[in-house]
Amino acid sequence: MFKKLTKEDIKGESQLKSSLSRNLKQQLIAKYPKMTLEQLDLIIPKKKPMSLIKCEDRLSLYTCNGEILFAQFYTDDYIPHLKFIQKFPRDYFKSLQVDKGAIKFILGGSDIMCPGITSKGGVLPNEDAQIDDFVIVYAEGKESALCIGKLKMTSNDIKTLNKGIAVEVIHYLGDGLWNMKI
Amino acid sequence: MSLVETIYCRVCTFPVDFCDYNKKATKCKKWLQDNYPEKYQQLYAGKESNEENSNDEVDEKTKKVEQSLKKMELRQAKKEKMELENQQNSKIIIKTIERTKRKRSIEIQGLEVFPLDLKKLSKKFSNKFATGCSIVDKKLVLQGDLADDVELFINKLLKEEAGLDDIKVEKTVAKRKKTEEELAADAAAAIANGTSTAKYVKGSELKKE
Fold first, then answer.
1. A2 within some domain
2. In a domain, A148, yes or no
């Protein structure tokens, strides 16, 4: 989704009100109950204002301290940046794991197929993860998150059908959003 | 609760455990070894000893992945080598163009091969030489007769920013095309002097010696 994002797509930057960043933190805690306010304050200090960068195609990026934290299309859900995700332990998010063979293809930008998850080395997503939920994808033998995607099949379906696209990859290591520098 | 600290590779910007899936893996490893020796040990020490001992333990899938990674890296290395050669062989041409009267401008050609941002470069030039500098289809056009200064500056720049030495820089001078009026005047003068009998005809390419 962010494969072709470049600096030229940026249209303008504006500062955000501090009330908005407070709101955002509340929302994050509501969504990921394991996060604490202190942790979020470390990433988004109260004194430092967040800024909003508007891009082509109604994409907005939320940044703080020169780091991109979230991306958002129109007014959909916030898509966390991988660097943001990598600041938290793995069990904070709904996650799954793929085997070694899949890493190369994901870094090339492809979606995740079922066999990559069901084979040895893969871990199925949490039971409570629903279709269209954001899931963080980890890889066999690696610590850091590899990509973030939208779940396209339930955990059960992945196991039984074992065919087709299981996760639609949105943001991965080395894509346009990852390489964007502000 | 504090945050998880992830080390990011300075070479490929990935978290260090993903370095070997990048095309510059060898460089990344070296960087990691220099900067975070502990982490390097943790990530790669086990692997190297494994290779020496026995390959039977490593299952086939892992082997396959490693092989394809190696291939990818090799290809990238080749590509980089080609690029470097390309850069070494390329020439920068600085052309002096006459403008009206005694004014001159220079055109710099062949910079696009190098890892430099033309847009930034043009700003740099205009700052450094206090003139206008613009980009005309991948050529930089500087206002003012600066060929010698620019040559020095480009050499310095390439050494500093790209680490390249001995890049050929060629200087040429392009004569301005004479306008028709001037050609007519020249022809008239020649006739008056008795050196030539040829009359200038409008539109023709006839020129006096």
1. no
2. yes
